[in-house]
Write a structure and sequence with these properties.
The chain is an all-alpha fold. It contains eleven helices and two strands.
Length: 264
């Protein structure tokens, strides 16, 4: 119909810091919050402390925008804290004449992406939990406070390493049949594939960049891909891939998808 919408997401998990993450994640919401909350509150015009306070208030309100619950408020506050720390670190670097971005090197960029991803995932736990108590229990499981669980066949694998399986079992590690998903290499490989797509593969906007699929793409400095396998083209292979994705999407309509936000 000739309708072109603004960019809303642009590979946010490729961000090397939380500031960049919010420039890639829910871009239209971030722009709205900046123009109608952050700037009217004073933005960065009234000193560093007020700037950080305005930033925190904005993120708390973004949390409330997602849902009327304490988990959403804490999620917004956590991201506000991340942003304050990130902006504070940038200010400290300028004062001590470290103007070279940490992401200038491959290792610096990789470290930044890893830290950002971990921080975002920690916040997602709170966002997705039904209650603060539920989020606490999830964190306890993630950090192994209640011990670690592995599939039962891993016990045999680890015992081949000088009885390591029995050693770990005696120190709180469990081997449960409930973890069937991680038993096979196919399942583990699927997680690696998803990780590769998330962190390294081009996104759909980059696939379609030849046809200008969204407004505001020029702000991301997209570089054209020279490989014909990356850019979408009206050829047989891409037609088959598109039809396959369309069929899979139609088949998924029968699945129940829970609405996450409370009193959205």
């Amino acid at each position: 119909f000739g309708i072109i919408l603004p960019v809303n997401f642009f590979s946010p998990y490729k961000a090397s810091n939380i500031i960049e993450f919010w420039r890639r994640w829910h871009i239209t919401l971030s722009r709205f919050a900046r123009d109608y909350l952050y700037i009217p509150l004073g933005g960065n015009r009234k000193g560093t402390l007020l700037r950080f306070a305005n930033l925190m208030i904005t993120m708390l309100l973004i949390g409330l925008w997602h849902g009327a619950g304490w988990t959403f408020v804490i999620w917004g506050g956590l991201h506000g804290s991340y942003l304050v720390i990130n902006h504070g670190w940038h200010a400290i670097k300028k004062k001590i004449f470290l103007n070279t971005p940490t992401s200038a090197t491959i290792w610096g960029h990789a470290l930044g992406c890893m830290l950002t991803f971990i921080g975002v995932v920690m916040a997602w736990v709170i966002f997705r939990a039904e209650s603060i108590d539920g989020a606490t229990k999830m964190f306890e499981g993630m950090f192994g406070i209640n011990g670690f669980l592995l599939p039962p066949n891993y016990l045999g694998y680890l015992n081949h390493l000088y009885g390591l399986g029995d050693f770990l079992a005696g120190r709180g590690w469990g081997f449960s049949e409930e973890l069937e998903f991680f038993e096979g290499l196919v399942e583990a490989g699927s997680l690696l594939l998803l990780a590769f797509i998330t962190f390294f593969a081009p996104n759909t906007l980059q696939w379609m960049q030849r046809y200008k699929p969204a407004l505001g793409l020029e702000g991301f400095g997209i570089k054209r891909f020279n490989s014909r396998w990356v850019e979408w083209r009206p050829v047989t292979a891409w037609a088959i891939a598109t039809i396959t994705l369309a069929v899979l999407s139609l088949l998924s309509f029968t699945k129940v998808s829970e609405f996450l936000y409370f009193q959205f």
